Amino acid sequence: MNNPTNPYSTPQQHGMAVTGERAAQVLKNTYMLLGLSLIVATGASWFAMSSNIGFINVWVTIGVYFGLLFATNMLRNSAWGILAVFGLTGWLGFTTGPIINMYAQIPGGMEIVTTALGGTAFIFVAMSAIALVTRKDFSFLTNFIMIGILVAFVASLANIFFGIPALSLAVSAAFVLLSSLLIMWQTSAIIHGGETNYIIATVTLFVSLYNLFMSLLSILTALGGDD
Predict the structure, then answer these.
(1) Does pTM surpass 0.85?
(2) What is the pLDDT of residues 216-226, one digit of tens each?
(3) How far is Cα 160 from Cα 153, in angstroms, rounded to an integer?
(4) Which of 131, 132, 167, 181 is the most buried (most CB within 10 A)?
């Protein structure tokens, strides 16, 4: 008995890449879910800020994040996957609230937050435009991006214990570069049929935006001397 068409993933046929209308639909669904995810994250962040939620333990933050990431991946082919996406993005927004509250308490802090948000938006538009306008296949960057993210993540965990400012700045700079490339890579993968599941594509783009914002926030703070 044949399985019904999966509405969350556009299948490839006869080994051919998904292109044209199918790819456009995946891209449209991805951007729609990404927009909703940003609304959920903003709402969760606002709730944490207005409730004066304190800083959440970093290991709890990471543990819940990976748990929700795993759940999203497991549920990516069902409606529950969309709820998992909202859970993941809401959690990241919620944990960001206390950080923004901290910046609100220091002189020029909100200017740094605004600049980081503006920089994140600019990079997202620019890297997406490169993939959409050039139509180039950036799959050759896959290994570089994945290995780079793994190395940067391990370095960030190590720096929790060592607390070396220079390493923190280097990790932030690496995440800015890698997250920017990941946005371009993921967009390219959608239009060339390398990614047909818009739930997974949304998570990839959202996490890239989150890492971009947090990394730019760290870099701007360091350059501003507000550490």
Answers:
(1) yes
(2) 999 999 887 64
(3) 11
(4) 131
